[in-house]
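R.M. (postdoc): so does anyone remember the format we settled on? I'll just put the C-alpha cells first.
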C-alpha cells in the first residue's frame, strides 16, 4: 500500500510532529498530493481529516514559522545593535579617559616644572621679606597689575619698551606704591594680577615683535612679579590673586583653546613656591577671581570676554551676585564707571602704546592702578600710577 513505506517512520513521531515532517520534507521529496498526504496520515494515526484540513494546517504552520523566523531575526538585529552601541560607548569613554589622563599628566608636568624652577631660584636668591607691622584694618590698598606683555619690543614716537624697560617701570611702580602706603598709613595691600603679563604668540605680529620665546617670557616675568611682591612685603602685609587671560593661552587658535591650558597657571604655581610669606586669596588663578576686602565683595576679570559698556550687568547676572567693585584690564587704558551700586575700574597697561594702538591712532601712557578701600567706601581713592 501507499503508506507502507511510512509505517516505520511514523512509529518514532507523534501525530503533530509527523504532520510537520510530512508537510516540510516528505510531501515535496516524494511529490505527494494533498489527497495522498490525507490517506497516509489518516491510515497511520486512525484519524479522519480531509485533504483541505491538512492543507490549511500546513499553511497556518508556514505563516507561524515565518513570523517566528522574522522575530528571531529582529531580535538578533537588536542584540547586534546594542552590542555595536556598547562598543561605541566604550570607545568614547576610552577616548575621554585618555584625554583626561593626558591633560592631568600635562598639568602635573607643568606644575612640576614651575615648582622645580622656583626651588632652583630659591637656592640662588631667597625671597623672605615679611612686614612686621600690625594691620589697622581701617584702610586696605588694592593694587591692580596687568597687561605687561613681557617679551614684546616697541619703538615708536610715543613709547619704547623691551624686557629691560619692564624692570625699570616695575621698580618705579614699587617706589610709588610704597610712598603712597607710608603717606596714607596703609599697612595692607592686596595685589591682583589681571593677566596678559606675557606677549605670548597668539598673533603673528607678536611673534615678530617678541624678543624672547614664550617659555622664557613666563619664567622671567614670574620672577619679576615674585621679586616685586617680596619687596613690597617688606613694607606692608601682602596678599595676592590672579586671573586667566587671552595672551597666555597655549593654542594660538582661540576656537581650539582650552581655558585650563594657560601659561598664566605656571606663573601662579611659580609664585606659590617662591613666596612663602605672601597670602594667596584664591585657590588658583581663575577666569573670575573673587575676594572680600573690609566687607566689600570684589570681582576681578581680565576683560577679554566682556564689553566695557556692559561689564557690570553681564558679570553680576552671570554669577548671580552683586559686586561692590569689578576690576578689569585688556583695554590698555584707565577708566572708571559706576552703575547700580557697582564700581567698575579698568586698569592701564605697563606696556603703553604699542604698534596696534599706534595704527589705530590711539595713545595712552603706561600706568597701573592703586585703589584705597576704607570701611566707609569701597573706592575711597583711586590713583592712576604712571610709570614712564
Amino acid at each position: 500500500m501507499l503508506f507502507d513505506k511510512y509505517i516505520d517512520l511514523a512509529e518514532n513521531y507523534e501525530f503533530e510532529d509527523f504532520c510537520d515532517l510530512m508537510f516540510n520534507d516528505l510531501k515535496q521529496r516524494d511529490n505527494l498530493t494533498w489527497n495522498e498526504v490525507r490517506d497516509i496520515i489518516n491510515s497511520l494515526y486512525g484519524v479522519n481529516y480531509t485533504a483541505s484540513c491538512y492543507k490549511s494546517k500546513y499553511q497556518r504552520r508556514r505563516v507561524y514559522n515565518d513570523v517566528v523566523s522574522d522575530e528571531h531575526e529582529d531580535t538578533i538585529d537588536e542584540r547586534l545593535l546594542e552590542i555595536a552601541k556598547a562598543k561605541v560607548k566604550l570607545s568614547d569613554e576610552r577616548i575621554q579617559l585618555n584625554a583626561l589622563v593626558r591633560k592631568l599628566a600635562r598639568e602635573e608636568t607643568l606644575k612640576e616644572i614651575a615648582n622645580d624652577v622656583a626651588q632652583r631660584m630659591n637656592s640662588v636668591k631667597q625671597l623672605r621679606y615679611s612686614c612686621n607691622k600690625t594691620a589697622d584694618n581701617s584702610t586696605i590698598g588694592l593694587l591692580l597689575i596687568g597687561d605687561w606683555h613681557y617679551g614684546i619690543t616697541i619703538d615708536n614716537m610715543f613709547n619704547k619698551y623691551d624686557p629691560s624697560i619692564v624692570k625699570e617701570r616695575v621698580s618705579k611702580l614699587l617706589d610709588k606704591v610704597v610712598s603712597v602706603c607710608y603717606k596714607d598709613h596703609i599697612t595692607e595691600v592686596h595685589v591682583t594680577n589681571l593677566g596678559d603679563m606675557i606677549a605670548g604668540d597668539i598673533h603673528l605680529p607678536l611673534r615678530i615683535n617678541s624678543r624672547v620665546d614664550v617659555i622664557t617670557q613666563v619664567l622671567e616675568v614670574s620672577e619679576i612679579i615674585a621679586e616685586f611682591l617680596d619687596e613690597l612685603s617688606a613694607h606692608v602685609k601682602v596678599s595676592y590673586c590672579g586671573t586667566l587671560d587671552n595672551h597666555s593661552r597655549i593654542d594660538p587658535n582661540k576656537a581650539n583653546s582650552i581655558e585650563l591650558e594657560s601659561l598664566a597657571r605656571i606663573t601662579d604655581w611659580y609664585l606659590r613656591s617662591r613666596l612663602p610669606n605672601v597670602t594667596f586669596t584664591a585657590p588658583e588663578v581663575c577666569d573670575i577671581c573673587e575676594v572680600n576686602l573690609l566687607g566689600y565683595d570684589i570681582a576681578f576679570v581680565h576683560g577679554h570676554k566682556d564689553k566695557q559698556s556692559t561689564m557690570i550687568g553681564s558679570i553680576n547676572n552671570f554669577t548671580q551676585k552683586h559686586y561692590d567693585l569689578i576690576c578689569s584690564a585688556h583695554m590698555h587704558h584707565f577708566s572708571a564707571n559706576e552703575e547700580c551700586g557697582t564700581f567698575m575700574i579698568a586698569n592701564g597697561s605697563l606696556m603703553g602704546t604699542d604698534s596696534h594702538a599706534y595704527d589705530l591712532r590711539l595713545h595712552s601712557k603706561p600706568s597701573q592702578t592703586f585703589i584705597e578701600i576704607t570701611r566707609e567706601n569701597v573706592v575711597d581713592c583711586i590713583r592712576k600710577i604712571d610709570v614712564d
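R.M.: ...and that's the designed sequence above, right after the C-alpha cells. Also worth knowing: The CA atoms of residues 151 and 217 lie 6 Å apart. The chain has two domains: 1-100, 125-386.
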